[in-house]
Design brief:
Blueprint: H1 2-15, H2 30-40, H3 45-59, H4 61-86, H5 91-100, E1 106-107, E2 110-111, H6 114-137
Antiparallel strand pairs: 1-2
């Protein structure tokens, strides 16, 4: 066993394998990541809270989170719902279960379809990607990045 571990360690050193997580730092939430990055630019405390609230209001993160969660739930429960329909469960009962599990998010009184949620998520990724690209082109301020 010890030889196996040493061999793996030699392979990692030789080829520079890096893990996708840090063993030194604990995993951070989205808010904690934003907070630590903002602190590098001197935005802390109440100033950070105010900026975060503005960002949440502008980007409506709650809706995006709902769509992403709903997509995951729809994907995970697709087979269950299909089986319920195959066994001729009442449509009203299946839809009620979908509603309870937040698989049918409603926006302005209309149920958002899976295709619409996918479109919203893809559009959001594209918009945020473009914003990130242009922000990365900005000249460095005092003190650098």
């Amino acid at each position: 066993m010890l030889q196996h571990l040493r061999k793996n360690e030699n392979i990692r050193r030789r080829y520079g394998i890096r893990y996708h997580y840090s063993i030194l730092d604990k995993p951070l939430t989205v808010k904690e990541n934003l907070m630590s990055r903002a602190a590098l630019y001197g935005i802390t405390g109440n100033a950070f809270d105010k900026r975060l609230q503005e960002l949440v209001e502008i980007l409506d993160f709650d809706e995006l989170s709902t769509y992403a969660t709903s997509l995951i739930k729809n994907h995970m429960l697709h087979g269950v719902f299909r089986e319920m329909e195959r066994k001729h469960y009442l449509d009203e009962m299946v839809e009620a279960i979908r509603d309870i599990l937040d698989c049918n998010p409603v926006f302005h009184g209309n149920v958002v379809s899976v295709n619409q949620m996918i479109g919203i998520m893809m559009g959001s990724i594209a918009v945020f990607g473009i914003i990130y690209y242009f922000i990365s082109l900005l000249p460095e301020g005092e003190g650098g990045r």
